[in-house]
Amino acid sequence: MSVKLVFLGKLADLSGAPETLVPGPLDWEGLLTALPGPLGEGARGDKVKLAVNGKLLSDKTALSAADGDEVALLPPVSGG
């Protein structure tokens, strides 16, 4: 089984695809390992938020995703 990573906004551009599958279960360190280069660096930043199955995490380092879960990486939103 696997965990689906969903990239939104500029993170989708950095990843080259809007989503990808990684082996589960997945914790914070596993997520960082699964994200290459600038994508991993972006995820470490304070402005990127994580949601698991649609629920926003208050502390992304507490990430715990099981097989079949969806983890969304949410970049900062700018508006006009």
UniProtKB/TrEMBL annotation:
<protein>
    <submittedName>
        <fullName>MoaD/ThiS family protein</fullName>
    </submittedName>
</protein>
<dbReference type="InterPro" id="IPR016155">
    <property type="entry name" value="Mopterin_synth/thiamin_S_b"/>
</dbReference>
<dbReference type="InterPro" id="IPR012675">
    <property type="entry name" value="Beta-grasp_dom_sf"/>
</dbReference>
<dbReference type="InterPro" id="IPR003749">
    <property type="entry name" value="ThiS/MoaD-like"/>
</dbReference>
<dbReference type="Pfam" id="PF02597">
    <property type="entry name" value="ThiS"/>
</dbReference>
